[in-house]
Amino acid sequence: MIVSFDVWNTLLDINVMLDALSSSLAELLGISDEEAKLEILKAREEIKKLRKAQKGSPERALEESQELLAKELNTNVEVVKRAAVKAVLKVAEEIIIDGALETLKAVKTEHTIITVGNVMFWPSAYTRLILERFGLADFIDRQFYSDELKAYKPMREFFEKALSHFPQSKALHIGDTFEEDFKGALNAGLYAVWINPEAEGVRRIEERGFEVRQIRDLLDVLRSLK
């Protein structure tokens, strides 16, 4: 089976990266970390709304988000790009989600692992660098991102482009967002696992869909599908 992982808030903690980005923007613009973080969150919410409605340009997914953040901060895109580089240099091992590395290791013993991720504010190369730096990339066979595939979750095309590289027909995707990861994967014909921290445990909520509380619960789902 192909097991597809979302990256941010599934393998890596987005809040750690956003805090580092806020700090870097604050340094470059001479504003407070709190002010920078507020503008980042506003821009992030706007981009998510556009993508949910599939109104954003798939070919310019990265550029659109960078431009929107620069506009919110009343600065230029170059500052956003510099801040993203600084943020990548700042993050430490705490960015790894608890249980992520152990789960990748366990899944890798029997399955092919890929990542499929949207990009926002920084290019996929930076995400690849973080996964490599902290050892997660050692257990990932292929990585796919929206700035490379020119499509983004929850678009059906995004999942289809990634899976077209593999002969196996059966695939499962796990992620933390209901619309982008869970519904997106189901609509593309995959099994889907939604990480919901408020879930009581592993629960089947669709014919091909499961709800889990944490990434480690994926192993129980995979055992149930054998």
UniProtKB/TrEMBL annotation:
This is 2-haloalkanoic acid dehalogenase. It comes from Palaeococcus pacificus DY20341. One of its GO terms (molecular function) is hydrolase activity. Belongs to the HAD-like hydrolase superfamily. Signal peptide: none annotated. Keywords: Hydrolase. The keyword Transcription regulation does not apply. The keyword Acyltransferase does not apply. InterPro entries: HAD-like_sf (IPR036412), HAD-SF_hydro_IA (IPR006439), HAD_sf (IPR023214), S-2-haloacid_dehalogenase (IPR051540).
